[in-house]
Specification:
The complex is a heterodimer of chains A (198) and B (109). Chain A has 198 residues and is an all-alpha fold. Chain A contains 7 helices and no strands. Chain B contains 4 helices and 2 strands. In chain B, helix 1 (7-19) packs across helix 2. The chains are: A mainly alpha (198), B alpha+beta (109).
Chain lengths: 198, 109
């Protein structure tokens, strides 16, 4: 065993964002012990670092997976609604879906920062949520298109901004996701401090 | 009827039972890997432990750290009475499922 080798610092910093402080101490200790005692001797430093990054990714997926699924579900549902129930007035639909998306991201940021005590955790979960949701949404929209592409639906797709917009928009939501998650994180971390101070 | 535990939950609870006073995160991970004969993600064990603790089946407390952990504390787990009951009931359910089945299994191949 060796205690000199250390996993990537940035990966540890990400892990810290997604766990409660007391949980981080014991979980990161377990990971460090496994890294130094089992993985590094068997796979070398590069292999062990890769292993550590994969483990941290697992915690990120657990922390943001539910929010990403909700976000993608809302996006695909809105797309399906536009395609299958066409309209020329998108104002109300946009209001509802924007409010829903903002709500999911702010709540994700709030909840994660409330648990971890760090506002940056909110930004991190907002980013992770929109990145994962983008992949899920694009897959969902592609599936919708594979199922419904007869002339009537094609006309509705063109009328709602075309297929390209439906596939590209989730990627453009990543930066707003980071900011909204950060805003939720600010609220969550502040609320936690106020509650614990009081 | 009590909730039947999943295979992974049983593996984690039985690891805690076997390890007794030495049941902390990484030791549980190694024990589960040994019994299931496959590599297991530490995150899966930690998530299961958190879920079992939320259900009241196990209880944890922080212990001291070691050099290899850079002083970070170990979290030790022990079974609560509800955890023991859940294991016993799950064992009973599995035995009921298999009762009367003749071994070796023969199917329509």
């Amino acid at each position: 065993m060796t205690t000199a080798s250390t996993p990537p610092l940035w990966a540890e910093a990400v892990l810290r964002l997604f766990l409660k402080p007391d949980v981080f101490a014991s979980v990161s200790g377990d990971l460090l012990e496994q890294y130094r005692d089992s993985i590094q001797p068997a796979r070398g430093t590069r292999g062990a670092d890769a292993w550590y990054r994969v483990q941290v990714l697992g915690y990120v997926l657990r922390g943001a997976g539910l929010w990403a699924a909700l976000f993608a579900l809302a996006y695909v549902a809105r797309t399906a609604f536009d395609w299958l129930r066409p309209t020329t007035d998108f104002y109300t639909r946009s209001q509802v879906s924007t409010a829903l998306a903002v709500g999911i991201l702010v709540l994700a940021g709030f909840w994660t920062a409330w648990r971890s005590g760090s506002f940056a955790a909110g930004a991190a979960v907002g980013l992770a949520t929109t990145v994962m949701a983008a992949a899920l949404s694009i897959g969902g929209v592609a599936l919708l298109f594979a199922i419904w592409h007869e002339p009537g639906t094609m006309a509705a797709i063109k009328g709602s901004g075309d297929l390209e917009e439906s596939l590209v928009l989730p990627v453009f939501l990543i930066v707003p996701g980071l900011l909204l998650g950060g805003f939720g994180g600010l609220l969550g971390a502040t609320a936690r401090r106020l509650v614990h101070a009081g | 009827m009590a909730e039947v535990l999943g295979t992974f939950e049983q593996a984690v609870l039985l690891a805690i039972l076997r390890l007794a006073e030495e049941a902390y995160g990484r030791a549980i991970l190694l024990e589960v890997e040994k019994r299931l004969k496959r590599e297991v993600a530490p995150g899966a064990v930690h998530a299961t432990l958190e879920r079992l603790e939320n259900k009241g089946l196990v209880k944890s407390k922080l212990g001291s750290g070691t050099v290899i952990r850079s002083g970070r504390p170990r979290r030790y787990y022990r079974l609560e009475p509800d955890g023991v009951t859940a294991l016993i009931e799950t064992h009973g359910t599995i035995q009921d499922l298999w009762r009367g089945i003749r071994w070796p299994l023969k199917g329509h191949v």
